[in-house]
Amino acid sequence: MNTTDHSEAILKEIEQKFQAINQKTDVQLEGLLWSKLITYWDYIQTDALLNLQIQRTTLPDEMVFIMYHQVNELIFKMILWEIDQIADTENIQVDFFSERLSRITRYFDMLTNSFSIMENGMEVDQYMKFRNTLTPASGFQSAQYRMIEFASTDVINLTDRRYKDGFDENTDLETSFEHLYWQAAGKDYHTGQKSYLLNEFEKKYKESFLRQMSSFKTKNIWQKFTQLPIEDQQNTALIDAMRHYDKTVNITWVMQHLNTARKYILESGKGNGEATGGSDWQKYMHPKYQRRIFFPKLWTEEELSNWGNETIA
Question: What is the pTM of this model?
Fold first, then answer.
């Protein structure tokens, strides 16, 4: 095909595209005469992105803390983007499923490895000063992270283990929500009283969380796995990808986060041992206490009993 024929073929496809949406091709093409050529900074929105870092103090290392957490939120968005592809693909194929899971796990691997930025990239004295200006805000309040959880597994697997035996897949979402494992970080179950941290979090996001819980009830990662043909559910590569994702999110990444927090809050000798949000953060964060497991049926009894003890393969 020569250049003229190629151009005519492209123009024909353009014509078909705009005819399909009842638009005039000539108008669209004429618009190209006046449109600006794209630049890297316009496409990435660099100026907007680099102006989102607003410090509350004059301490230089606070900027590291802000940017690091903003990067985390961008990675969370990438993870949700990949999960949506799994959730919304009809008759999903094993290769596609495994590839998307591998992408998601690589993102979490990146998050895990990046904790050295927090662990070794801030002066303890500076951190212990500017963190006081963050109270009562907390990383607990990352809504995207909660969205990832709802999109990964059945709600029963996110239920506080103290109450899990009384719940099943038919439990209404509102009741399930009130007994999610992370409610314990800001709720007194004896009185029902919630902390300011938790109340503000729910005021902002509860409706969105309930919609996510409802939307992903039949299309979360675990449900998409169980909807595969039996032979595909026995695919070794896919099972390995599921297990790797589960362990990476619920043990490896969490433990790296916990160890970094310990360095500043406990081992520095400069803090009072409390999280900015006021939670019992060590028990809240440690996987052996949470026992949050996305895909429990893919683990042996021995592996489940050792969850969070770092003996799990």
Answer: 0.88
